[in-house]
UniProtKB/TrEMBL annotation:
It comes from the Bacteria. Residues 326-337 have a biased composition (Polar residues). Residues 315-337 are annotated as: Disordered. Belongs to the shaker potassium channel beta subunit family. Residues 315-324 have a biased composition (Basic and acidic residues). This is Aldo/keto reductase family protein. InterPro entries: AKR (IPR020471), K_chnl_volt-dep_bsu_KCNAB-rel (IPR005399), NAD(P)_OxRdtase_dom_sf (IPR036812), NADP_OxRdtase_dom (IPR023210). SUPFAM superfamilies: NAD(P)-linked oxidoreductase (SSF51430). Keywords: NADP, Oxidoreductase. Residues 15-313 form the NADP-dependent oxidoreductase domain. It holds the Pfam family Aldo_ket_red.
Length: 337
């Protein structure tokens, strides 16, 4: 496993991290989930990403139990706040001072730890003054409950303003967590340049496009039984936009490139996002321990410029690059409002 700095901080993270977005506490039984975490540790992964909203707090519980007994200083634990949790009351979502403080306390209990290495705003809250949000994050840092602050799916302008306030408050704002993969490159035009200037690193999710870039979905065929595309409770709504014959055909045409570098299509997809120097880590999930072992083989892979060009030529016009998609994918009003 190779390691990278998280943004311009001194914190090193495994360049492939383990996330439990729609698996732990929902799709995967607890014992299987714990086996996946053990496989991640065995493979050299030290960075684990979760959120309070995943399976309505259950994912944090599973991760906390899975990491119990592991030397705390040897792992980096990330979690997030914003989306509704609990019964969905008027203050059970967003980035208000109240919700942030109640959420970090709940996350720490579930994760069985005194602090998280990175606490992230899971989206931008249009209904809370940004000053209030950043001051609450500053309180969390100064109380020792989080070491660093990050965000997820913020626009370039939101990153700039948040970073300005963080500097004034003297707290380390070091990361952004966007969706990023061969098919979805909307951060490249504005978010990445702004992040490079600010010293913010990307911790990217969905590097294999929810499974589409594994090649298991074939054009003209029904999705395999038991795959994410057939799971109405945990994935079908996220993956649907990629399940067109044009996309699936072009993904199959990536196979010769993967073969050339001795990788599976999934490994090629993970290696591809790691070619971006602004990416600090690529979050991968798993429903089986053997998937973890396969994913980590993408660590340390160097793709040649000619191979990257062939990937671009193969995918052609199906790649989404519109920077406006970042803002469009965030709620315009606080959930539950």
């Amino acid at each position: 496993m190779d390691f990278r700095y998280l943004g311009n901080s001194g914190l090193k993270v495994s360049e492939i991290s383990y996330g439990n977005w729609i698996t732990h506490g929902s799709q995967v039984e607890n014992e299987q989930a714990k086996a996946c975490v053990k496989a991640a540790l065995d493979a050299g992964i030290t960075t684990f990403d979760t959120a309070d909203v995943y399976a309505n707090t259950k994912a944090e519980v599973v991760l906390g139990e899975a990491l119990e007994g592991v030397r705390r200083e040897s792992v980096e634990v990330f979690t997030k706040v914003y989306w509704p949790t609990g019964p969905g009351g008027p203050n059970d979502a967003g980035l208000s001072r109240k919700h942030i403080h109640e959420s970090i306390n709940g996350s720490l209990k579930r994760l069985k730890t005194d602090y998280v290495d990175l606490y992230q705003a899971h989206r931008f809250d249009t209904e809370t003054p940004l000053e209030e949000t950043m001051e609450a994050f500053a309180d969390v840092v100064r109380s020792g409950k989080a070491l660093y602050i990050g965000v997820s799916e913020w626009t370039a302008e939101q990153l700039q303003e948040g970073h300005r306030l963080a500097r004034e408050l003297r707290i380390p704002f070091v990361s952004n967590q966007p969706q990023y993969n061969m098919l979805w490159r909307v951060i490249e035009g504005e978010v990445v340049p702004a992040s490079e200037e600010l010293g913010i690193g990307q911790v990217v999710f969905s590097p294999i496009a929810q499974g589409v870039l594994t090649g298991k979905y074939k054009p003209g065929e029904q999705p395999p039984a038991g795959s994410r595309a057939t799971d109405e409770n945990g994935g079908a709504n996220f993956i649907g936009r990629f399940l067109t014959d044009d996309v699936l055909t072009r993904v199959q045409e990536l196979k010769p490139i993967a073969d050339e570098v001795g990788l599976s299509l999934a490994q090629l997809a993970i290696a591809w996002v790691l070619q971006n120097p602004n990416v600090s880590s690529a979050i991968t999930g798993a429903s089986r321990p053997e998937q973890v072992a396969e994913n980590v083989k993408a660590s340390g892979v160097k793709l040649e410029d000619a191979q990257l060009k062939r990937i671009d030529e193969t995918l052609g016009g199906i790649v989404e690059r519109d920077p406006a998609k970042t803002a469009q994918n965030s709620p315009q009003t606080r959930p539950g409002s």
